[in-house]
Specification:
The chain is α/β, with parallel strands linked by helices. It contains 11 helices and 9 strands. The protein has one domain: 3-Layer(aba) Sandwich (Rossmann fold), CATH 3.40.50.300. The N terminus is likely disordered.
C-alpha cells in the first residue's frame, strides 16, 4: 500500500535541562541576538527530547480593564503582532491527539483565526514535563487578550494514562480536540516517519505482527495508538463526552474548511477561517493555505508532511483492518460518529 502521508501532525519533541541542571542563559541586549539565542536553544532541545526552556521576556504590560475594541485585536492595524499586551493563561483548549492524524495541520489552520493564540511547539507537559509545575507550563503560553483562546497541541497526551487526570487538575472545563484517522493508514504513516529517521528499521510486517507472522503486536506503539476506544475510555473517567470534539483526519484533507468550521463552533468562535483560505496542493496531496494579502507565497506544511508511504502488502493491510474493526465500531458508538473506516 503506497500513497501520500496526508496530514500527519507532530512537531519534533521539545527538550530542556532537567530541574536544577544546565547553565543559566544570559539574555543579550540586542533583540536580534535574543531571537537567535532562543531559536538556537529550541533547536538544541528539540534534538535531545526533554522539556522546552521557558523564554525570559520583559514584564508584561497590564492588560486593559475593558474588553479590547475590535480594532485592537492582534494583527489589526495599530497593534503590532509582537505586542506585550495581554497575559499568559492556561490553555482553555488542547489538541490532545492523535499522532500522524493531522494535528499540526489543524493547529496551523486555527492560527489563522484572530482570536486563537497557540503555542507553536509541543510542550509535552502532561506526559513528560509535569514535574516542572503548572507555573512553568503557563509561562510557555503566548500572551492573550480578553476574548482570545489559548491553545496548545501535544498528540501523545491521548495515549498517556496520566494525562486526563492531570489536565482535569489544571481545569475541569478544558475543551479537548482529538484528530483521528483510519488506524491502519495512521500506523503506516507513523512507520514511514520512523523509517525516514531510522533507515535500517525492520519491515512494517515484522513490527506489526509478533515474529512477523503471529497475532497483531499491540505492544508496538504504531499499532497501539490506533486503539482509540481504549484510550477514550480512560479520558471519560475524568471528562464528559461533551468536552470532546473528534475531528476526521480524512475530512481535514478533503474538506478542511468544513472540519475547521466545526472546531470554531466547538470553541465558541465566529467562523472566520473558511474555504477562501485553502487550496489543494496536488503534489503534497493535502490542502495548503492561500497566501495572505501582502505575502509572497502560499503556506504549506513542511517537507516532512505528505511523505510517500512505504508499500505494504495488501494481505497485511487487510489483517490490520480486520483487527481494528471491532475497536473502530466501539469508537463510533462512544463518539456518536461513523468515520467510515470499515
Amino acid at each position: 500500500m503506497a500513497g501520500s502521508g496526508g496530514l500527519g501532525g507532530g512537531a519534533g519533541d521539545l527538550q530542556g535541562a532537567g530541574p536544577g541542571q544546565g547553565t543559566a542563559l544570559r539574555v543579550p541586549r540586542s533583540p536580534l541576538a535574543l531571537v537567535a539565542l532562543l531559536l538556537g536553544a529550541y533547536c538544541l532541545f528539540a534534538l535531545t527530547g526533554r522539556c522546552p526552556p521557558v523564554a525570559r521576556t520583559p514584564a508584561p504590560v497590564p492588560a486593559p480593564t475593558e474588553p479590547p475594541h475590535a480594532s485592537h485585536r492582534l494583527g489589526a492595524p495599530g497593534l503590532p503582532v509582537a505586542s506585550d499586551l495581554g497575559r499568559r493563561r492556561f490553555p482553555q483548549a488542547l489538541i490532545v491527539g492523535v499522532k500522524k492524524g493531522g494535528t499540526r495541520a489543524l493547529l496551523e489552520f486555527l492560527r489563522l483565526h484572530p482570536d486563537v493564540r497557540a503555542l507553536g511547539s509541543e510542550p509535552h507537559f502532561f506526559d513528560r514535563c509535569y514535574d516542572r509545575g503548572l507555573a512553568w507550563y503557563r509561562d510557555l503560553m503566548p500572551r492573550t487578550l480578553d476574548g482570545q483562546i489559548t491553545m496548545e497541541k501535544t498528540p501523545s497526551y491521548f495515549v498517556t494514562q496520566e494525562a486526563p487526570r492531570r489536565i482535569h487538575g489544571m481545569s475541569p472545563d478544558t475543551k479537548l480536540i482529538v484528530v483521528v484517522r483510519n488506524p491502519v493508514t495512521r500506523a503506516i504513516s507513523d512507520y514511514a516517519q520512523t523509517l525516514s529517521k531510522t533507515p535500517g528499521l525492520p519491515s512494517f510486517r515484522a513490527l506489526a505482527f509478533r515474529h512477523g507472522l503471529g497475532p497483531v503486536d499491540t505492544a508496538w506503539s504504531a499499532v497501539r495508538i490506533g486503539l482509540y476506544a481504549q484510550h477514550l475510555d480512560n479520558w471519560l473517567r475524568y471528562f464528559p463526552l461533551s468536552h470532546f470534539l473528534f475531528v476526521s483526519g480524512e475530512r481535514l484533507v478533503t474538506d478542511p474548511a468544513g472540519e475547521v468550521g466545526r472546531v470554531q463552533d466547538f470553541l465558541g468562535l465566529k467562523r472566520v477561517v473558511t474555504d477562501k483560505h485553502f487550496y489543494f496542493n496536488a503534489t503534497k496531496g493535502f490542502p495548503c493555505l492561500k497566501k495572505a494579502q501582502g505575502s509572497g507565497r502560499p503556506r504549506c506544511l513542511g517537507k516532512s508532511k505528505g511523505r510517500p508511504h512505504p508499500r505494504v502488502p495488501e494481505a497485511v493491510v487487510q489483517r490490520l483492518q480486520d483487527f481494528y474493526r471491532p475497536f473502530n465500531r466501539k469508537f463510533y458508538q462512544m463518539t456518536g460518529q461513523d468515520f467510515g473506516w470499515d
